[in-house]
Specification:
It is built from 15 helices and 8 strands. With 334 residues, it is of the alpha/beta class. The chain has an 8-stranded parallel β-barrel with strand order 1-2-3-4-5-6-7-8, surrounded by 8 helices. The longest helix is centred in the last third of the chain and has 39 residues. The model has no long low-confidence stretch (mean pLDDT 95).
């Protein structure tokens, strides 16, 4: 009997769920899970997760003290909410959860390191070891330097919003645990830039980018794991079968599960080792030069940080509104 594409993919690639929706994670039972500010903001607005939001807010209000302002309570709750979702997810999955540092710190190495350590401390206080958490950081030069510091302290990092080979090489040279190159967002940029409606999966610019990064890493023996992310269709996923990890939305996981057919392996370390590839060393000057020359990577990194920042502002507003509602209920019941 033929197997589903999802079942075959699991045999060669670690399948990760790209969602803050705990029910979807329970359904697909991935090895790992990733979240980001947009996903947490979306999940926080779902009625089924109101309890997590309310508990986080009420605990923050208690811990902040009776003299704390609404802003202080919301800030404390905001810092804790991603970890609260992460802890729920870790009850379901056997592997790791990725939790993102505030995108507004993307160009501040010191602040990113401090925030990452705070997140890890929250997980450890809840009894979760460092080996089960990946700290997500945007792949700016400052973010990569922060990850290098954290990795030396055994805090494992997932470098996100990654669009170019220069970013990937800098991450590998910094000893980062894992990178998340964004397939679909690269496709989005090329479609807009060229005016094309679509690309065949094998010619998809996002697929080609991740393939190039994967082959480079395997050719030169880097230990950093490659996790393709941000997919627009299952063709992009099947073209990357064999990648170390792929983080996939619940919708596309459902499509893969419902599709029966042969799934050949496309990425293989044994093939990459034999390739003729030039090795490049990426210092800050090289990073800046390559980044400036890559319009797509420059545009999408800036756009991604801006998008995550807007999601965080929305989440803060949502928490402030919910706190007013909860305080109103407390006064009424009193």
């Amino acid at each position: 009997m033929s197997k589903s594409l999802l079942e075959q993919l699991r045999q060669m690639t670690v399948v990760v769920a790209d969602t803050g929706d705990i029910k979807a994670i329970e359904k697909f039972r991935p090895q790992d899970a990733t979240t980001n500010p947009s996903l947490i903001t979306a999940a926080a607005q779902m009625p089924e997760y109101q309890e997590i939001v309310d508990q986080t807010l009420l605990q923050a209000k208690k811990d902040a003290g009776s003299t704390a302002s609404q802003k202080e309570i919301v800030t404390l709750a905001f810092d804790r909410l991603a970890v609260a979702f992460g802890l729920k997810i870790l009850e379901i999955i056997p592997g790791r959860v990725s939790t993102e540092v505030d995108a507004r710190l993307s160009f501040d190495t010191e602040a990113t390191v401090t925030k990452a350590r705070e997140l890890i401390a929250q997980y450890q206080a809840a009894g979760v070891g460092r080996d089960r958490v990946l700290i997500k950081i945007a792949t700016t030069w400052e973010g990569i330097r922060a990850a290098e510091i954290l990795e030396k302290d055994r805090i494992h990092c997932n470098l996100t919003l990654l669009f170019g080979l220069h970013q990937a090489i800098a991450c590998a040279e910094a000893g980062v645990t894992l990178i998340s190159p964004f397939v679909g967002r690269i496709l989005d940029w090329y479609k807009k830039d060229t005016g094309r409606d679509s690309y065949p999966a094998a010619e998809d610019p996002g697929v080609l980018s991740v393939t190039q990064i994967y082959n480079y890493y395997k050719k030169f023996g880097y230990q950093t794991e490659v996790m393709g992310a941000s997919f627009r269709n299952i063709g992009e996923i099947t073209e990357l079968a064999g990648c170390d990890l792929l983080t996939i939305s619940p919708t596309l996981l459902g499509e893969l599960q419902a599709t029966i057919g042969e799934l050949p392996r496309k990425l293989d370390p044994a093939t990459a080792v034999k390739m003729e590839i030039e090795q490049i060393s990426v210092d800050q000057a090289t990073y800046d030069k390559m980044h400036a020359a890559d319009r797509m990577a420059s545009d999408k990194l800036a756009e991604g940080i801006d998008g995550f920042t807007k999601a965080l502002v929305s989440l803060e507003e949502l928490l402030a509104q919910r706190l007013v509602t909860l305080e109103g209920k407390a006064v009424a019941s009193h």
